[in-house]
Amino acid sequence: MIFNKDTAEKTAEFLLQINAIKLNPRNPFTWASGWKSPIYCDNRLILSFPAVRNYVRDEFSKNIEKNFGKPDVIAGVATGAIGIGMLVAESMGLPFVYVRPEPKKHGRQNQVEGFLQKGQNVVVVEDLISTGNSSLLAVEALREAGANVKGMAAIFTYGFNVSEENFKAAKLDLYTLSNYQNLLNLAVAKRYITDDEEQTLREWNMSPSTWTTEV
């Protein structure tokens, strides 16, 4: 769920302004999974725009404490959420760790990088939620390291049914700054897309794995 509607609308507006989110229903993108998609989200661009990254940092900081309580540690999911996660940790005056997709193949073979004690309360910061699988692998690694994961805060979610089911199964609360619904509403209001393109984007969101490029 979103933290609040005002934040969701403002975040969506920023993401469109800086082209972190690109909408192109007539010439779809291809994701790493092979899915065809009329939308592409690259939240790494946020770090290049001081006003936007500061807004995201501040909204994360106040809403994390409001919804989860102040944790002992902020954890970022590598690699996309390392930068913003560090900014949030600094703003909240908290230690920071990050979680690799898998343990290193050499050295200490860490998956969780940084100092983390068993029993510490952790909130995970993520940049983007699609199916939620990679994000929840990071949560699993933190739990295996002995952390008490209070929840996850992400910049944006596509709102797929499968991601909601995955987070429910993992018994983890997910809050986001913005989501697909608020993005589409704003894109229509600001005329980023036509009514027909909106319909295409809504159809894709209902069944992204089987969606075709016909518009």
Explain what this protein looks like in three dimensions:
One of its GO terms (biological process) is 'de novo' UMP biosynthetic process. Its EC number is 2.4.2.10. Its cofactor is Mg(2+). It is a single chain. With 215 residues, the protein is an alpha/beta fold. The chain has a single domain, classed as Rossmann fold, CATH 3.40.50. Helix content is 40%, strand content 21%. The chain contains 7 helices and 10 strands. It starts with a helix and ends in a 9-residue tail after the last helix. The mean pLDDT is 93.
Summarize the structure.
The protein is α/β, with parallel strands linked by helices and 215 residues long. Helix content is 40%, strand content 21%.
Which key features would you list for this structure?
215 residues, alpha/beta, six-stranded mixed sheet, two-stranded antiparallel sheet, 40% helix, globular
Mean pLDDT score: 93
N- and C-termini, Cα separation = 30 Å
Q: What is the strand tally? A: 10
Derived from helix and strand composition plus strand pairing, the structural class reads: alpha/beta
H-E order = HEEEEHEHEEEHEHEHH
SSE blueprint:
Layout: H1 5-17, E1 21-23, E2 29-30, E3 36-37, E4 39-41, H2 50-68, E5 73-77, H3 82-92, E6 96-99, E7 112-113, E8 121-129, H4 133-144, E9 148-157, H5 161-169, E10 174-179, H6 180-189, H7 195-206
Parallel strand pairs: 5-6, 5-8, 8-9, 9-10
Antiparallel strand pairs: 1-4, 2-3, 6-7
Helix pairs in contact: 1-6, 2-3, 6-7
